[in-house]
Amino acid sequence: MADKDPKSPGQDVRGNDARGEVGIHDPTVPSPSRRTFLKSVGATSLAAAAAPAWARVDYVNDAKEEPAAQRPDGEAAPAAGHQRITLNVNGQPYTLDVAPNMVLLDVLRHQLDLTGTKKGCDHGQCGACAIHVNGEAINSCLSLAIAHDGDEITTVEGLERNGQLHPIQQAFLEQDAYQCGYCTSGQMMTAVAILNDPSVGSDDLAVREAMSGNICRCGAYKNILSAIQSARKQMKPA
Fold first, then answer.
1. For residue 190, which of 114, 137, 119, 111 has the smallest C-alpha distance?
2. According to the model, what pLDDT value does residue 77 have?
């Protein structure tokens, strides 16, 4: 009498349906051990984690060489992802191609090489990057360059005229209003703006309040105040 097969038709030795998604186990074909499988997964994960971030992410500022398109007037168009703007900086016009996310501070430092304007906190809290835009002091680290197309911009390099120091520059020297000097350019730019602003009082308290957005980590505030009040006597109201 033939033995009864305990399995129902269509099942493999593990009880999986041979007509479904799971294949029939073949004992003659060796399968990878659990240890080998875990090793291969671990190696793949480690390789992915070790890849540098810049190799996995593209940014708008990434320089990619692409053929420059031609405009109807024959002039080369801006590179892909860039916009052409014109800035009048310290009395000189510049035509620049900038990425939409470039801040004015980086354009001044890296494209125009005007490194007197300093990168401090990058959050608009220290004042080291202060410049003048159309006569008003702003933090250039918080302002997109494309927002200033056609604007008049003055940096600390533009305070001097014909070899003559600006009164605020001379006063900072005479009053020893700096130590490390890193914040000095921003201090000067803000100081010139408030000295030209008739709405800012001339007393020490008003000056301290108006200058409160500029941090001096060396603590030269007393001499900075003295320099501003000294320069006031040399400057005519704007």
1. 137
2. 86
Structure tokens at 96: 């620049």
Q: How many CA atoms lie within 13 A of 181 on its CB side?
A: 6
Residue type for position 151: D
**Contacts from 108-116 at CB under 8 Å and sequence distance 24+?**
108/140, 108/153, 108/155, 114/89, 114/90, 114/155, 114/157, 116/155, 116/156, 116/157, 116/185
The Cα 51–Cα 47 span in angstroms is 6
Task: Note the pLDDT tens digit of each residue in 55-83.
Answer: 444 444 444 444 445 555 557 888 889 99
- Cα–Cα nearest to 187, from 153, 143, 162, 218: 218
Name the 3-class secondary structure at 207: helix
For residues 77 and 117, is the Cβ–Cβ distance under 8 A? no
Q: Are strands 83-89 and 152-154 parallel, antiparallel or unpaired?
A: parallel
Give the whole-angstrom CA distance, residue 80 versus residue 101: 14
Residues of the chain with pLDDT under 50: 13, 15, 18, 46-48, 51-68, 238
Tokens 């109201």 belong to which residue? Answer: 237
- CA distance from start to end of the chain: 118
Angle at 91 between CA 89 and CA 94, to 5 degrees: 45
Nearest to 205 by CA among 186, 225, 178, 234: 225
Q: Write out pLDDT tens, residues 149-189.
A: 999 999 999 999 999 999 999 999 999 999 999 999 999 99
